[in-house]
Amino acid sequence: MLTNRSKVVVQKKMTFWERIYLPAILSGISITIKHFFKKGATVRYPETKREISEVWRGQHVLKRDEKGAERCTACGLCAVACPAEAITMVAAERKKGEEKLYREEKYASTYEINMLRCIFCGLCEEACPKEAIFLTDRIVSTDYARDGFIYGKDKLVEEVDERIDVSKRQTPSVLEFKKHKQFSHNK
Predict the structure, then answer these.
(1) DSSP 41
(2) Residue 180, SS3?
(3) Structural domains in the chain?
(4) How far is CA 94 from CA 9, 54, 109, in A?
(5) Alpha-carbon distance 133 to 108, whole Å?
(6) What is the sign, positive or negative, of the torsion defined by CA atoms of 91, 94, 98, 99?
(7) Per-residue model confidence as pLDDT tens digits over 33-81
(8) φ, ψ for residue 111 (rounded to 5)?
(9) How far apart are CA 108 and CA 102, in angstroms?
(10) DSSP string, 139-170
């Protein structure tokens, strides 16, 4: 013995009802029957959608400005800020006649996000100086193949006629700052 303490174990004699286990079996069956009448926790997703928090981060979107030009200038800050290294891009220079397509002289000719690596932390949208990338409330689609999860500009850039509202992702101070058109960032 390691200590001088000892515990006396008493073997209590089981009663007749404890020996036949009938009360234990009946209490187990009653619990099972109660669960039959409870509402299930499962949500039938395509038909019924669960409420999503306002700060929930879903699929990324590359925004356009008011004129329809892409905001992204391929500065690479989002890729540097990404802890999962899920963002890759290739920068290119704008050619003559492409002024309506791209805001600045430099743009992202390829912009890819590996959604399998992305941890949806939101650091890319915080790092972007041009407010080009945002995480929306859209759910990322599922698939059985891995190659479908590398999202390029075809899936990320918003359509000109179908704008995605990201105002709820911006703080009140940012929205107030955007009202001042004298700053070059807001032009």
Answers:
(1) -
(2) coil
(3) 60-186 (3.30.70.3270)
(4) 85, 37, 9
(5) 12
(6) positive
(7) 999 888 888 888 778 888 888 788 889 999 988 888 888 889 999 999 9
(8) -140, 115
(9) 9
(10) PPP--SSSGGGEE-HHHHBPPSSS----GGGS
